[in-house]
């Protein structure tokens, strides 16, 4: 089964159609904004489906509904935009330092009628409060921990690959690491920490 079909099965027809529009926007603007190296089914797999499953895993583990989410360095909007399309009660803020990507994210909000805030600056300059802070493919746990020191009473939940264990060692094993079993052939982990 390809990842479009897996996504359809997970989210239903109405949400799938909105995700399709989002994918079309990414593919249409990818060169102009340098959004992602993914295209076709790989975009559905690593951009859409993995984002949905990972954030669903995070929210289920933290028992959160209708929460305030901060996505650090979302680029094309992964993992938060696919999740927001699926779960529109999420209060989303994206911290993205690259101006062109901010322009793209604002275009996504307008074209798909999504309600989220784009903070076009480094995350350290954001003074908001969030229930969950996430990031995917943004840097090491040490770096992510460093740039989130100004946030309090938040759950850090970063999507990581197999290097997560070495990264956690560098920060004295302060993160709880959980593997997402949905991805049998991949090593995708979530690193949790309450700050």
From TrEMBL:
What does the entry list under GO cellular component?
Answer: cytosol
GO molecular function annotations of the record: rRNA (guanine-N7-)-methyltransferase activity
Keyword terms, alphabetized: Cytoplasm, Methyltransferase, rRNA processing, S-adenosyl-L-methionine, Transferase
Localization of this protein: Cytoplasm
Per the UniProt record, which EC number(s) apply here?
A: 2.1.1.-
Q: Which residues bind S-adenosyl-L-methionine?
A: 73, 78, 123-124, 136
Cross-referenced Pfam families, in alphabetical order?
GidB
Stretches assigned to coiled coil = none
Q: Give the top-level enzyme category.
A: transferase
Q: What is its main location?
A: cytoplasm
- What does it do? Specifically methylates the N7 position of a guanine in 16S rRNA.
The text of the family note is: Belongs to the methyltransferase superfamily. RNA methyltransferase RsmG family.
The entry's protein name is: Ribosomal RNA small subunit methyltransferase G
Output the lineage of the source organism: Bacteria, Bacillati, Mycoplasmatota, Mycoplasmoidales, Metamycoplasmataceae
Q: What's the gene?
A: gidB
């Amino acid at each position: 089964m390809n990842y479009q079909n897996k996504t359809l099965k997970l989210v239903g027809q109405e949400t799938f159609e909105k995700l399709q529009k989002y994918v079309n926007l990414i593919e249409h603007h990818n060169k102009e904004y340098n959004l992602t190296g993914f295209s076709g089914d790989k975009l559905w797999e690593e951009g859409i489906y993995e984002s949905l499953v990972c954030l669903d895993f995070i929210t289920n583990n933290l028992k959160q509904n209708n929460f305030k989410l901060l996505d650090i360095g979302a680029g094309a909007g992964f993992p938060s935009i696919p999740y927001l399309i699926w779960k529109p009660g999420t209060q989303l803020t994206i911290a993205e330092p690259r101006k062109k990507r901010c322009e793209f994210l604002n275009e996504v909000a307008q074209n798909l009628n999504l309600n989220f805030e784009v903070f076009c600056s480094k995350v350290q300059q954001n003074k908001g409060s969030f229930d969950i802070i996430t990031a995917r493919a943004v840097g090491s746990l040490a770096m992510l921990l460093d740039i989130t020191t100004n946030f309090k009473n938040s759950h850090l939940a970063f999507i990581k690959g197999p290097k997560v264990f070495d990264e956690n060692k560098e920060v004295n094993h302060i993160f709880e690491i959980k593997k997402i079993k949905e991805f049998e052939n991949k090593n995708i982990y979530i690193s949790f920490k309450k700050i």
